[in-house]
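Worked Example 4.2. Consider the chain below.
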Amino acid sequence: MFAVKAGAKMVHAFEPSEIFYALCENIQENKMGDSITTHKKTIEEFYELNKEFKCDIIISEWMGYFLIYERMIDSIIKARDWFLKEDGLMMPDKAVMRVQAYSNHC
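Applying the procedure from the previous section yields the following structure tokens:
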């Protein structure tokens, strides 16, 4: 919905879990159904049916605990490789993880 508010003409939203139905309801309540196409699929399932699909920008909330916990990074990299146009953008396009050793032994 933020992408539509920012001027996107068409948004494709992917959510394979049961929260998909709340997503659809929220989109309708905000009157954005004409601008947002929802898919109750993983990006991998979508690719199998739409190998020629290309997009200008990929916006994803892929970060889990410690950036990698939910293991979405693999899917977003596939989405980039399969769907993003050559001059397309990824948002976010970088992340920083800082780790510090700790011991409480005397």
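The radius of gyration is 17 Å. Residues 42 and 67 are 19 Å apart (CA to CA). Compare this with Example 4.1 before moving on.
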